[in-house]
Each structure stands twice: as C-alpha cells, then as structure tokens.
Design a protein that fits this description.
359 residues, mainly alpha, 2 domains, three-stranded antiparallel beta sheet, two-stranded antiparallel ribbon, 52% helix, BZIP transcription factor
C-alpha cells in the first residue's frame, strides 16, 4: 500500500469517526432535552395541583417556588388586573380609629399562635371566606416574578424593611410590621369577599395618591419574600426604582398635611411599639416579648394577638409602610393596656379582652 493510499484511508476513518461522534453527541443531547422536558412537565403538573391550596407549609411553598424558577415555569394565576382603584377620600381619619364592624370573636383553638417568631396569626372577621376560585394565586406576583430570562436575584434588602430584619424581626415593632404585611396580603388574595374589600378600603382609600393598589401589594409581597428567603426577584424595569415608595410617601404625607394632619400625627411601627411598651410594666413587657419569640403563655398569646389584629385592621397605607393615627393609637392601645391590667388582676379573661378589642 502506497503512502498516499494509507493517508487516504486514515482521513476516511477520521471522517467516519467524527460522523459517529456527532451522531452519539446529538443523540445524548436529545435524550437530555427529553429528560429535562419530562421534569418540567412534572413540575408544572405539581404546580397546577398546588394552586388554590392555602394550607401549604412554608417550606413546601418555597420548594415549589425554587422548582418553578429553575424550570422556567410561570404562575398560571399571575398578571390579573387589579381592581378599580379607590380614589375617593375618606374623612373619618380625624374622628378616631376605624373599628371593624363585626361581632365578638370566639376564643381561638389552643394551637400555636406564632407562625414564626416575627408574625402572630391574626383573626379574620367571622364572615370572611377565602375564595375557592383557583384564579386567585396564593402569591401576588403581579406579572413580575417568573420571567426567568429577564429577572435577577436581589440580595440587598429594600431600605424600608431593614429595621425589621435580623434582630429587628424579634422585636415588637418587627412583629407589628410583618404581621400587618401578612394580614394585608391575605386580604388582597381574598378581595372578592365583602369583608376583605371593606378592610382594604380603610387601609388604602385615605389618600387620592394611592391609585395602584395592586402595584403596592406586589411590592409588599416582594418584601415578605425577602424576609422569608433572604432574596427577592426584580424584573429589569423601572417598576422597582428605589425612590418609588419614597415619592409616594411624600405625596401622601403632603395630602394629609393639607387636611390638618401633619407627619407627627402618624406613627410608624417603632413608635407604636414604644407607646405600647411605655404603658406596660417590666414584667408585662417581658411576657409579651416571650410571645414574640414563640415562647409565651397561651393567655399572653391571646392578648397579644388581639392587639396585633387590631393594629393590622386599623392602619393607613403611606406607600412606604403602615401608619397609625394618634387618635387610634391612644384609644386602641389604652383600651388594650387596661384589659391587660384587668386580666392580670383576675378581673377579665384574656379571651374576653380579645373579644372587646375586635368587637
């Protein structure tokens, strides 16, 4: 065999080997794509089955969230248009706290009150019914979250929630803030029910500048996500500009000031917590701190839940967080502290204090 023939045969064998390699590689790639598609289909099926189920544990919900994220699956119930904005002014602020119109609550079951160390479970009105319609997603994604090719993971917390993270989560102010967020998100997810609509109206219709409640709720959901997971997703758009909430807070503050209600009239969670603690004895303050940490006595849990529920139902949205009027704080906290003292003296049962606060 001549050298030329040997070179030709080597080239032929090389061409055949490359062809076979490409076939094997293409077959392997196709096999991997088929397996990935099967996994995505299974995740999507699990995701669809989980929609509308409100009793999912937090760890399972987080696992589903990660699976959807990795698989690039979008929520089915996302992107519904928010309901008509409430733009009519409510002139009841200066006249005192807005108490929910509901009969006394029955005592809660003797289960754990604390969902986590930062959030107390809050009682809803007796006529409150969560909607069975699966179109109401358990999340408030508002079209921002699951377009994985256009989102990035944010590890720096929004500045407005920094006081309520870390050690701040285990303070009275942190408990008030996060319980209020959770309660409002639950109401929003059930906004087809009249009791939820009534309570949401009290929170968001105090200023004509609150015209996109759905957007505000998506920001609230993002903050709750950050508190639970240590990150949040942010779509690459102007919707999450850092000054958005600051500008809205300024407009709302100016609006209330024009009505004779300056900034000092409104109290943040830290100021509300200070007001509460300043009226409690050191022993009482220690007991309620134990409740916040998930170690309190059942009677103390019941009393704390009544106060947190009342605060969650009587705040006003300022764009960058909840506020309470001086009048509502004076009336609400004063009544609660009196009830606590009566309960300690054996004059009033803790469950009756809860009923009095929420009646």
């Amino acid at each position: 065999m001549s050298p030329a023939d040997a070179d030709a045969r080597r080239r032929e064998r090389g061409v055949i080997a490359q062809r076979e390699y490409r076939k094997r590689h293409a077959s392997k790639v196709q096999s991997l794509q088929d397996e990935n598609q099967k996994l995505k289909d299974i995740i999507a099926e699990i995701d669809r089955a989980s929609h509308g189920r409100r009793a999912l544990p937090d760890d399972l919900r987080a696992a589903l969230f990660k699976a959807r994220d990795l698989a690039g699956i979008s929520d089915d119930g996302v992107g519904e248009q928010e309901e008509d904005a409430h733009t009519d002014e409510v002139e009841q602020v200066a006249t005192g706290p807005l108490l929910p119109e509901q009969p006394a609550h029955t005592p809660a079951a003797s289960t754990a009150v604390v969902r986590r160390a930062t959030t107390l479970e809050i009682k809803f009105p007796p006529d409150y019914q969560p909607p069975p319609d699966e179109r109401f997603s358990p999340r408030l994604d508002y079209g921002l979250w699951f377009e994985t090719d256009r989102v990035i993971r944010i590890l720096d917390p929004p500045t407005d929630i920094v006081p309520y993270l870390g050690a701040g989560m285990h303070t009275l102010a942190g408990s008030i803030f996060w319980s209020t967020m959770d309660y409002t998100l639950d109401l929003w997810n059930s906004r087809s029910a009249p009791p939820a609509v009534r309570l949401l109206d009290r929170m968001f219709s105090q200023s004509r500048h609150v015209v996109d409640t759905g957007y505000l709720m998506s920001l609230a959901q993002a903050r709750v996500d950050f508190m639970r997971k240590g990150f949040m997703f942010r779509k690459l758009s102007e919707q999450f500009e850092r000054n958005t909430m600051v500008d809205l807070e300024r407009l709302i503050s100016e609006h209330h000031k024009s009505r004779g209600l300056p900034s000092k009239y409104w109290k943040k969670p830290e100021e509300v917590a200070w007001n509460m603690l300043s009226q409690l004895t050191p022993g009482q303050a220690t007991r309620f701190q134990a409740v916040i940490e998930g170690k309190g006595a059942p009677a103390d849990e019941e009393m704390m839940r009544s106060m947190i529920t009342w605060l969650a139902q009587n705040y006003v949205c300022f764009g960058d967080g909840p506020r309470w009027s001086n009048i509502s704080i004076s009336v609400g906290i004063g009544s609660w502290v009196k009830g606590v003292n009566d309960a300690d003296a054996g004059v009033l049962d803790a469950s009756k204090l809860s009923a009095e606060m929420l009646s």
